[in-house]
Design a protein that fits this description.
Layout: H1 2-8, E1 15-19, H2 22-39, E2 46-50, H3 60-66, H4 90-99, E3 104-109, E4 113-118, H5 131-137, E5 140-146, E6 152-158, E7 170-176, E8 179-184, H6 190-207, E9 212-215, H7 219-227
Parallel strand pairs: 1-2, 8-9
Antiparallel strand pairs: 3-4, 5-6, 7-8
Helix pairs in contact: 2-5, 6-7
Length: 238
């Protein structure tokens, strides 16, 4: 979500997405369109350029050797007023800024918002998202339901019904500081714990690891989410 906010913190002439995974890149381009619609802002000109992946199998030396203008689909001619906003280690950031000749970097601080470091000295408008805009960007709907015992719970699903949460122990959903905070009720059985664990995996896949926080999960359930195998054929109820 921070990257989306960076895209819309200023009316940039164009945005070049540096990506390693085509599927993630296409998904993010769709989110940019959804974000523009939700914020009622003009859609920026978006270009894309592939770079080496950042993972445990790719060393900084290999990353530096592989990233070059010849290997990139779009070879941006970096100008003095161009700004790099990049998520990675300090070494990766320094490497890509040096090789692509960026003189300014866009940074973010919780108090200051977006600002530049380097040749340029600017501070940009803060983009405050709400739970409504967050769901619009991610194509999600939230609805309150009641189970057979008239207990109220929250259900999340995609607007096209491609996925939905299954647990009836999702109590509350809040959007705070760019994160979706999900509060769970204590499940009464191992089957219900597994359903919650499966929902947690689903929501992590949909929203990303750093955009969601689960609250009130018992230690046994946290271990199940982290290490356990969740059966795809598990029934919803005991």
């Amino acid at each position: 979500m921070l990257l989306l906010r960076a895209v819309f913190c200023h009316p940039w002439d164009s945005v070049v997405l540096l990506y390693a995974d085509s599927k993630n890149m296409e998904g993010f381009k769709r989110k940019i369109k959804h974000c523009a619609d939700a914020l009622k802002k003009p859609m920026p000109l978006v270009q894309c350029s592939r770079i080496p992946s950042l993972d445990q199998h790719n060393s900084i030396a290999k990353f530096a050797a592989e990233i070059n203008f010849d290997s990139m689909k779009i070879s941006p001619e970096t100008k003095q007023n161009d700004i790099l906003f990049y998520s990675g280690t300090v070494l990766h950031l320094r490497c890509i800024a040096t090789l692509l000749r960026f003189e300014s970097i866009l940074a973010y601080d919780n108090d200051k918002g977006f600002f530049t470091i380097g040749k340029q000295n600017h501070q940009f408008a803060e983009i405050n998202l709400t739970i409504k805009t967050f769901f619009e960007i991610n194509n999600v709907r939230m609805k309150k339901k009641r189970d057979g015992d008239s207990k109220e719970y929250v259900s999340l699903r995609s607007s096209d019904s491609a996925w939905k949460t299954r647990s009836k122990y999702l109590n509350k959903v809040e959007y705070i500081n760019d994160m979706l905070h999900i509060s769970w009720a204590k499940p009464p059985s191992s089957t219900q714990r597994k359903i919650i664990a499966k929902d947690c995996h689903l929501l992590k896949r949909i929203f990303g690891h750093y955009s969601i926080a689960h609250q009130n999960l018992p230690p046994a359930l946290e271990r199940l989410i982290r290490y356990g195998f969740i059966s795809e054929t598990m029934e919803e109820e005991e």
